Amino acid sequence: MKRIMVAIDFSDITEAILNTAAKIAKAAGAKIILLHSGPLSTPSTNYDTDAQLLFSRKATSSQHIKQLLTDYQERISEIGISVTFRQYFGAVTEAILSEENIARPDLLIMGTHRHGLIHHLIFGCVTQNVINQSICPVLVVPGS
């Protein structure tokens, strides 16, 4: 395994996703490609963790999001893992699949938020859509 793509959204499961990715990358000697895709405007979700609060209040511009990604990159690099990052604004599923086609990772790691049935019926499920269309194995870190 050479490349692990890690899709993050700065939600409450981001830390668990990053920790999982770092453990696998360290054991496999793989590099990590951090990927963030999302709207440029403030999300309308009820946030209750520090990372989410930071995102909801401050990360409303490309510059703020880039800084958050840089912070994660530096933190993971400190344990000896090569990390790059990419950011996209717009449709999340399409961005993940597009970057997957470019980067050709050996593994994709992402989380799930466990929204209810009504939410999935109205908005769909990014994780399920990516799993259905991915060209590589997808490891899903469950939300709380």
CATH architectural type: 3-Layer(aba) Sandwich
Q: What is the number of domains?
A: 1
Counting H and I runs of at least 4 residues, what is the number of helices?
A: 6
> How would a textbook summarize the main sheet?
5 strands, parallel
Tertiary shape: globular
**CATH superfamily membership:** HUPs
Beta-strand share of residues = 15-25%
Write the layout of secondary structure elements.
Elements: E1 3-8, H1 14-28, E2 31-38, H2 50-58, H3 62-77, E3 83-89, H4 92-103, E4 107-111, H5 117-123, H6 126-133, E5 138-141
Parallel strand pairs: 1-2, 1-4, 2-3, 4-5
Helix pairs in contact: 4-6
Describe the structure concisely for a colleague.
This protein has 144 residues and is an alpha/beta fold. The chain has helices at 14-28, 50-58, 62-77, 92-103, 117-123, 126-133; strands at residues 3-8, 31-38, 83-89, 107-111, 138-141. A 5-stranded parallel sheet has the order 3-2-1-4-5, sandwiched between helices.
Considering the chains and any ligands shown, give keywords for the structure.
Rossmann fold, five-stranded parallel beta sheet, 144 residues, globular
Write up what this structure looks like.
The two termini are 29 Å apart. The radius of gyration is 14 Å and the shape is globular. The protein has one domain (3-141): Rossmann fold, CATH 3.40.50.620. The chain has 6 helices and 5 strands, in the order E-H-E-H-H-E-H-E-H-H-E. The protein has 144 residues and is α/β, with parallel strands linked by helices. Helix 4 runs parallel beside helix 6 (126-133).
